[in-house]
Automatic annotation (TrEMBL):
Lineage: Bacteria, Bacillati, Actinomycetota, Actinomycetes, Mycobacteriales
Pathway info: Metabolic intermediate biosynthesis; chorismate biosynthesis; chorismate from D-erythrose 4-phosphate and phosphoenolpyruvate: step 5/7
Organism in which the protein naturally occurs: Gordonia liuliyuniae
Protein name as it appears in the record: Shikimate kinase
Keywords from the named record: Amino-acid biosynthesis, Aromatic amino acid biosynthesis, ATP-binding, Cytoplasm, Kinase, Magnesium, Metal-binding, Nucleotide-binding, Transferase
Binding site for ATP: 19-24, 123
Catalytic activity reported: shikimate + ATP = 3-phosphoshikimate + ADP + H(+)
Length: 176
C-alpha cells in the first residue's frame, strides 16, 4: 500500500471509544504505511500545555470540547498520514462536519472489552462510583456518532496486527 495522491486529507482517521486502541492501532498502521501519526489528544495537551484531566477540571467538558474541535480541525487540515481522534470527538458537530471526505475507521469494541483496557486509568469521564457502568452508558450514547462518521468498521477486540491488516486491505480495495 502506498500513500494516495490526494494531499488534502489524512490517509486514515481512527475513531472509537476509550480503550478501543486508537493510539496503538494508529501507531502500528502509520508504521506499516510509512506515514506520520498524530494523536489528537496528545496534540490537545501539547497546545494547551495541560493534560486532558487538567483541562476537564479547569474548563469542564464544554471547554474541553471547544479546544478539541479547534485542534481536530487543524490536524485534519494539515495531517497526511494516520490520525487518531479522542473518544468523544465524533459527538461534536463541528468535528463530524470536518470529517466529511475522510476515510474514517471506527474501531468498535464491546463495553466489557473496552472497560477492561481502561480500568484503573485516569479518565475524567469515568470518575464515578461505578466506572464500569459509566463506561457502558457513555459508549451506548456514542455508538451512533461513531457509526455515523465511519466509512469502515473494524472489530477492535482483534489483535492489533489483524486490525491493521483489515484497514490496509480496505484502503487497497478503495484504491482499485
Amino acid at each position: 500500500m502506498t500513500a494516495r495522491t490526494v494531499v488534502d486529507r489524512p490517509l486514515v482517521v481512527l475513531a472509537g471509544f476509550m480503550g478501543s486502541g486508537k493510539s496503538t492501532v494508529g501507531t502500528a498502521l502509520a508504521e506499516r504505511l510509512s506515514v506520520d501519526f498524530v494523536d489528537t489528544d496528545t496534540e490537545i495537551e501539547r497546545r494547551a500545555g495541560r493534560t486532558i484531566p487538567e483541562i476537564f477540571t479547569a474548563d469542564g467538558e464544554d471547554g474541553f470540547r471547544a479546544i478539541e474541535a479547534d485542534t481536530v480541525r487543524d490536524v485534519l487540515a494539515s495531517a497526511r498520514g494516520v490520525v487518531a481522534l479522542g473518544g468523544g470527538s465524533p459527538t461534536v458537530a463541528a468535528i463530524r462536519d470536518a470529517l466529511a471526505g475522510c476515510h474514517v475507521v471506527y474501531l468498535e469494541i464491546s463495553a466489557d472489552d473496552g472497560f477492561a483496557r481502561v480500568a484503573g486509568t485516569n479518565r475524567p469521564l469515568l470518575a464515578d462510583d461505578r466506572p464500569d457502568e459509566r463506561y457502558r452508558t457513555i459508549l451506548a450514547a456514542r455508538v451512533e456518532h461513531y457509526r455515523g462518521v465511519a466509512t469502515h468498521i473494524v472489530d477492535a477486540a482483534q489483535p492489533v496486527t489483524t486490525v491493521v491488516a483489515d484497514i490496509i486491505s480496505r484502503l487497497d480495495q478503495e484504491k482499485s
